[in-house]
Amino acid sequence: MQFYSTNNKALRVSFQEAVFNSLPQDKGLYMPEVIPQLDPYFIKNIQQYSLQEIAFTIAKAFIGNDIPDADLKSIVDDAINFEAPVKFLDAETAVLELFHGPSYAFKDFGARFMSRVMGYFSKQGEQLLDVLVATSGDTGGAVASGFLGVEGTRVTILYPKGKVSKVQEEQLTTNGQNIRALEVEGTFDDCQALVKEAFNDPDLNNALRLTSANSINIARLIPQTFYYFWTYAQLKSQGMDEIVFTVPSGNFGNIGAGLLAYKMGLPVAHFVAATNVNDTVPRFLQHGIYEPKPSVQTLANAMDVGNPSNWVRIQDLFGQDLDQLKAKVSSYTYTDEQTLEGMEELFQKYKYVACPHTAIAYLASKAYRNEHPGEYASVFLSTAHPCKFPEAIKPEVFQHVALPDGASALAEKEKQAVEMPVDYKTFKTYLLVNN
Ligand SMILES: *Cc1c(COP(=O)(O)O)cnc(C)c1O
């Protein structure tokens, strides 16, 4: 399988190149040259398979023989070594919990898979692989834990100072070894802009072997399709096969993976994109005009994205056809006040403590059902464990959160971060001097 750039379908690269380049030089995004179609027989009998077996089948459909089966199988088994349970809140509403990995957020799927693929392709004796990543909160922890100790790699994480939660900051600043954290005096968009400029800088590319771990990397997108199939398998074993997925969205990688799964043959009735007030995509779906705005800080900080970088992939998947896209994807936007009400309602009604991102998805799934009653399962994605967001959850509710093992140990570790102004020259000098 080869991968093209969304800006130029004639430009094709191998899977390995797509993973290491992360972004094509023309600043498009990599997409598979054909969307692999899963065997209908496999989908029909999918409830017989485990999450890891499903994951292997999907990964193989994209990667082919670029990684031999036995190696791919150990990459998958090692990366996806945690659960992704679907929990029913009532007869027609379920939550897909994606936070049972080491950083307590769904980004573990992408980051763990990608780090192992990069480790696999990095040959001994090659120049150190420098992974640059901007995070609005959760990517940093997932990438840090995914790459920690992976030989031949060094990770530099840029995060917006004061705009990530305590647990998030601890997860990305207390690692040491091959992981460095830069505390940027700006927003997530500023962090992302610094990283993008570095990738386009010839001096840096001469001196360092740069690669990105952001959600634009194709090796992060692929593993995020796994759990859509897995959810279908779990529901099918309970006799349900009409599903509407609601996905709390920021950079639109997660819902992009869901739409990719759908295009691979997964039966999905509809997708709902749930956003906070960073509503570039909902406005686009409403008016047909894509007009990015600077990001606004909210309680659901991992979704504070003003210009979602994966959106071009979704448009590419639908051949730039807005009507087809709108037939499959709806969207809803929520303020912080509504988010708080959503968390409260989940707790009062179901005794379920959700993080703010998850609460936004819950509200949107409810809104969609109100407008579209019918016999289907509403599955909303829980993208992070509530323990990552103590500042956003009422103490009376937060006291019911069971801390995962390891969360309290984090607080004891020493913070190691370098302060960084929003200034490209300073960032560049840091990278060159600390090489
Ligand atoms: C990253 C993140 C999101 C947004 O996911 P995208 O793929 O960027 O749309 C939502 N919730 C949480 C908790 C996240 O960490």
- Helix segment tally: 19
Spatial extent as radius of gyration: 20 Å
- Low-pLDDT stretches are none
Q: Quickly name the level 1 CATH class of the domain at 72-106 and 221-398.
A: Alpha Beta
Q: Could you say which overall geometry the principal axes of the C-alpha atoms support?
A: globular
How far apart lie the N and C ends? 35 Å
Tally of DSSP β-strands? 14
Main β-sheet, spatial strand arrangement:
4-5-13-10-11-12
Please characterize this protein's 3D structure:
With 435 residues, this protein is α/β, with parallel strands linked by helices. The protein has a domain at 72-106 and 221-398: Rossmann fold. The protein has helices at 15-21, 40-44, 51-63, 69-79, 107-121, 138-147, 166-173, 188-199, 202-207, 218-236, 253-263, 280-287, 311-317, 322-328, 336-350, 356-371, 395-398, 407-410, 424-433; strands at 3-5, 8-13, 30-32, 86-90, 93-97, 129-134, 153-160, 179-184, 209-212, 243-248, 270-275, 329-333, 377-382, 418-420. The strands form three sheets. It has a six-stranded mixed beta sheet, sandwiched between helices. α3 (51-63) crosses α10 (218-236) and α11 runs parallel beside α13. 51% of the residues are buried. The chain binds pyridoxal-5'-phosphate. Its cofactor is pyridoxal 5'-phosphate.
